C-alpha cells in the first residue's frame, strides 16, 4: 500500500511539473489558430501553460480569463481524487476475497462527475479568451463584395414535394 501511494505521488508530481513547464513559442504579434482542442500559431502548437500565461497578460483576453485557474484546478483536483478513489477501490476489490464494498468507488465516480462541468467551463473560458485575443487583431477583409462570403445551397426536396431549389445567400 505504501509503495502504491509513493508511486502515485511521484507520478502526480511529474505530470504537474511537465504540464506546467512553459515553452517560448507564443508570439503576441500573431493571432492564434484554434483547431479542436489545440491552439496553434502557424504550424507551431502552443502549450497550454504558455497560452494561459500570455492570455492572462493580454488586455483583450484578460477579462475572459477571470476565474479560469480556479475552475481548471478544481476540476483537476476533483477528477484526480475521484480517479484515485475508483482505481484504489477497484484494485482492492478485485484482488481480495470476502466482502467487497464499492462505496469509495461510487464516491470517486461522483467526484469525477463533479469535475466534468468545471473542466468544460474552464475550456470554454480559455476558448473565449483566445477568440477575444484574436479579435484584437485587424481582420483582413475581402476586396470582392466588401468582405461578404457567397454561399450556394442546393436543396433537393422541400415540403415533401420533389423540387430542385438553389439558393444564393450572403453572410457578413
Compose a concise summary of this entry.
The protein has 172 residues and is an alpha+beta fold. It has two domains: 2-135, no CATH class; 144-172, no CATH class.
Explain the overall architecture:
With 172 residues, the chain is an alpha+beta fold. The chain folds into two domains: 2-135, no CATH class; 144-172, no CATH class. The protein is 52% helix and 17% strand. The protein has four helices and five strands. It has a three-stranded antiparallel β-sheet, with no helix packed on it. A hairpin with a 2-residue loop joins strand 2 (38-41) and strand 3. The longest helix has 33 residues, at 103-135.
Write the layout of secondary structure elements.
Blueprint: H1 2-19, E1 33-35, E2 38-41, E3 44-45, H2 48-57, H3 68-95, H4 103-135, E4 149-158, E5 161-171
Antiparallel strand pairs: 1-2, 2-3, 4-5
